[in-house]
Amino acid sequence: MRLAISTVVLAGIGLMLWGAMNLTQVKSAAALGEEAMQHVERIVAFGPRPAGSEALRKSREYIIDNLRSAGFITEEESFTALTPAGNIPMTNIIATLPGRSDRTIVLATHYETKLTKQFEFVGANDGGSGTGLLLALAKRIANSTYERTIRLVFFDGEEAFFEWSALDSLYGSRHLAEKWKASGESSKIGAFLLIDMIGDSNLNIRRESHSTPWLNDMIWRTAARLGYEQYFLPISGAVEDDHIPFLQAGVPAADLIDFNYGPSNRYWHSADDTLDKLSAQSLGIVGEVLLAVVEELDEKQ
Ligand SMILES: [Zn+2]
Asked: What is the mean pLDDT of the chain?
């Protein structure tokens, strides 16, 4: 993704105020975060995972195995993307848990990492964190009952190969948004919730300003209700990410992204995007907020 508006606001380092929350919630967030972190560790162990790589194929197998054992129906959506690096095979993963209604709620992330030549990029946060958290959420979601159909989507080809542009970025999400628009599937989506770079141990998420306002309102209200307002800042910043093609297809969508990773965002797209920069707590906090938002959306008529 890239920052579209340079409103750089230095966010204060949030202090963990666990005392403000109830014990059950704290335990639940901690367990969810730990489980997500274990998935991130497994995924990062595959090494750099650019589109078309053997490491990404292994990650895909790992993701699909976990989704199936959680009880989701999985589908691999493969296509060839014309990129500045040539024709690259890509595969989105779509996991479905059918509800009573064919109205859907989509949770999404990208699972590939940026191709780099000068250094080894393992994308613990950028590519790893969202994938790990969605896998941990898959188990929680499968153990609940929802009226709506829940879909988890793992996009390939989010990153640019050369330089970010409308054509060199968001390959997987553009492909799926077009397909779902053509089939009418996009009109069944009540909300599309994207997560990206949400594992930073110094978690501070701004309201992404392309995102659908009522959905941002719901997320920020939920975060405040759960006692997490210090991580969900009351300031905005615009980021181009995998939600954009869905917004363009008329789907209500929001992007939860902490695009303030290390001093002056220095860890982003660098050799420093490693496991030691992440925390299970951050993953757990974002996960608990998402679960509560999905519950509220499911009750919404
Ligand atoms: Zn990236």
From this structure: 93
Domain range spanning residue 18? 2-299
Quote the tokens at residue 244.
Answer: 């954009």
Number of domains in the chain: 1
- Of 156, 159, 196, 241, the active-site residue reads 196
Whether 21 and 253 have beta carbons less than 8 Å apart is answered as no
pLDDT tens for 182-220 read: 999 999 999 999 999 999 999 999 999 999 999 999 999
Both tokens assigned to 139: 């188990």
Residue 196 annotated as catalytic: yes
Judged against a pLDDT cut of 90, whether residue 9 lies above it is answered with: no
Asked whether the predicted pLDDT for residue 106 surpasses 60, the reply is yes
Look at residue 177 and give its three-state secondary structure.
helix
* Catalytic residue flag (residue 158): yes
> Residue 167 belongs to what H/E stretch?
none
Report CA(1)–ligand 1 centroid distance (Å): 5
Place of tokens 């493969």: 78
CB distance 78 to 51 below 8 Å: no
pLDDT classification of 150: cutoffs 50, 70, 90: very high
Which structure tokens are listed for 154? 């793992």
Class of residue 236 by CB neighbours under 10 A (exposed 0-12, middle 13-18, buried 19+)? middle
Read out DSSP for 246-262?
HHHTT--EEEEE----S
Q: Where residue 260 sits, what CATH number does that domain have? A: 3.40.630.10
- For residues 267 and 84, is the Cβ–Cβ distance under 8 A? no
